[in-house]
Description:
Layout: E1 6-10, E2 19-23, E3 32-41, H1 44-52, E4 66-74, E5 86-90, H2 93-96, E6 107-111, E7 115-117, H3 124-127, H4 131-141, E8 148-150, E9 153-154, E10 174-179, H5 184-196, E11 199-204, H6 209-214, E12 219-222, H7 228-238, E13 242-248, H8 253-265, E14 269-273, E15 286-290, H9 299-312, E16 321-326, H10 331-340, E17 346-350
Parallel strand pairs: 10-11, 10-13, 11-12, 13-14, 14-15, 16-17
Antiparallel strand pairs: 1-2, 3-4, 3-6, 3-17, 4-5, 5-7, 8-9
Amino acid sequence: MSTPKNQAAWLRKAGTPLEIGDALLPKAGPREIVVRNAAVAINPLDCHMQDAGVFVQQWPTVFGCDVAGEVYEVGSNVDHFRMGDRVIGHCINLVTGRPSDGAYALYTIVPANKAAILPDHISFIDGVVVPFAVEAAACTLSVKEPGPCMPGVSTPALGLPYPTLQTPAPSAGKTLVVYGASSSVGSMTTQIAAAIGINVIAIAGAHNHDLAKRCGATQVFDHKDSSVVENVIHAAMASRSEFVGIFDAISTPETYARDLAILEKLGGGHLACVHPPPADNIPSNVKTGMIFAVNDVATPIYRDFVTPALESGKLKCLPPPTVVGKGLEHVNDALKKSKAGVSATKLVVKL
């Protein structure tokens, strides 16, 4: 059998378009698999990597986090994947710096503990919205001790348990607010929190309330409502459960002001963010942190939860994908669309 040709969308300099070119065919190392990609997805992190070169360790580079496809090669010390398996996976170029670990290629290395079998009834296009968001949700919810995220900023440590396959999940007696519950990471965090048994109060645009409820939110409030802060406070108090804190999947000065107002009235708690958290005038009873979405805390979720939960429908491929085009040449278009802003969808490129 002839060796397949690999190509990738290369970033040669920060702030420039990706260029399609040849790439070495990756070789799976220990505890790794190589995936023949059928679909890749766009995350806001990718836009920052393209524009500013953040996390880039060598030039040129190949980045991107989400892949779905078939296993092409299995490395040593991997016993739960075989050649030809349909999988989804989270690539970690932002940690390793290796171009072979970036999603925007025909073949990509994925750590075996950051991949899961994709059930046959779910398309690659739908499935590819899941993996990065799963790890981000795990890093939001289940880290037990704060760790470094960036200079002067720690990761959040809510210390919540792992999700269960039970339907409905037994109540954990806790309430979490998710601000931006229709975003990719916001909707997945809502799903995973609900599967832990957390009462999730969501904040989202009025037209995305149904999506937040499909993800498991018990109540959803419109971020444009001038009474949103008071409404969330009332709902949390009425839940008669322990208030854990807020996951802010938007993380702007406007949302931080609302977060802190909610936390003040509810006696403090965690504020987990996707960008550097507010630093000034933070009460002592508020613990802030910024998620760094590569952490082995996610391993049990990939291993034990993702596949059976997708199979049963407990875990949904949300927000739904929007296909930008077919072929690596469409990744640039997808990145542009992501920077322009999307709502309640995740941008996907077919390969």
